[in-house]
Specification:
The chain is an alpha/beta fold and about 290 residues long. The chain has 6 helices and 10 strands, in the order βαβαβββαβββαβαβα. The chain is globular, with a radius of gyration of 20 Å. The two termini are about 25 Å apart.
Length: about 290
């Protein structure tokens, strides 16, 4: 495999803590306040092959147990990012999981910092409602003194070089030279058949989605946990940027894929979609890609 131009070989062995395990059992072995970022996408209770469909009441109770353990592990200055979509009831009713789960975090006194909308173009095509093309990330902290650094995740300004045209700053740049705040609506392709990161997992995190969280909410050497790890995208995002990656999953096939991806990262052959790469537009030359 040809090495991706944005990836260099890394020594990630001592920074990787991945296991096949039930997430509660896995987390109970970790010390209090040991994680600076907990980021995950739990099952949506819709009957995917890696989950057991159950009642919403039982689903929420199970999520409550996992969230409680995550709060115990969270550093006082850290963040929890819970990425969810919708549960679709058997009668077709849409149940937004972020609304359902929000009270569970508030029960622990956490504060919501952003409800980030992740928009993508591909997914199931609905016939009796508009097709779903977004999910959300609930970002919580324990208090007001939390880590957040905007500079590593700034995006190119819409009008580069724009200047103030009047007042005491007339003639000076009106935008930050490092770029602008990406806002709370993130347009990032989801991982479908032609995505360079695609594996056997049916609902896979794009690595760049997690990279933006890792870079803005943690420092090098910090620890990042994903208690529903799947094929390891959150762990990879952490390792790529000098953080420790922790994760678990109950499916051995996903653990095996995660370790293979970690080995590719170590060898410099892992292919991931670069951060802030423009979304492919077939109406533009080269799809809008340089």
């Amino acid at each position: 495999m040809i090495a991706h131009k944005n990836v260099v070989p890394l020594n990630v062995d001592h920074m990787t803590h991945v296991a096949r395990a039930d997430n509660l059992e896995y987390m109970r072995e970790l010390p209090d306040h040991s994680m600076q970022l907990i980021v995950t996408s739990p099952p949506y209770n819709i009957g995917k092959r890696y989950e057991r469909r159950t009642s919403l009441e039982r689903y929420v109770a199970e999520q409550a147990g996992t969230i409680a353990e995550c709060v115990r592990l969270l550093d006082d200055h850290g963040s929890i990012c819970w990425q969810v979509g919708n549960h679709i009831a058997t009668d077709g009713e849409v149940v937004p999981l972020d609304i359902l789960l929000y009270p569970l975090f508030k029960n622990h006194g956490l504060k919501l910092r952003n409800r980030i909308v992740w928009h993508f173009e591909h997914g199931l095509h609905c016939t009796k409602r508009f097709s779903g093309r977004h999910e959300t990330i609930l970002w919580f902290t324990k208090g007001d003194d939390y880590r957040f650094d905007l500079d590593p995740v700034r995006v190119p300004p819409k009008y580069p070089g724009k200047k103030h045209f009047k007042g005491p700053k007339a003639g000076q740049l009106s935008c930050n030279p490092l770029g602008k705040n990406p806002g709370d609506v993130w347009v990032i392709p989801n991982v479908k058949a032609n995505h360079c990161e695609k594996t056997e997992h049916p609902c896979q995190f794009p690595v760049e989605l997690v990279e933006r969280l890792v870079l803005s909410m943690t420092n090098e050497g910090d620890s990042v946990l994903d208690p529903y790890m799947g094929v390891g995208s959150s762990v990879l995002a952490a390792l790529k940027h000098g953080r420790h990656g922790y994760g678990c999953d109950v499916e051995q096939q996903y653990i095996d894929i995660a370790w293979e991806r970690i080995r590719e990262l170590r060898a410099g052959t892992l292919r991931t979609r670069p951060m802030n790469k423009p979304v492919y537009d077939p109406s533009l030359p080269g799809g809008g890609h340089r």
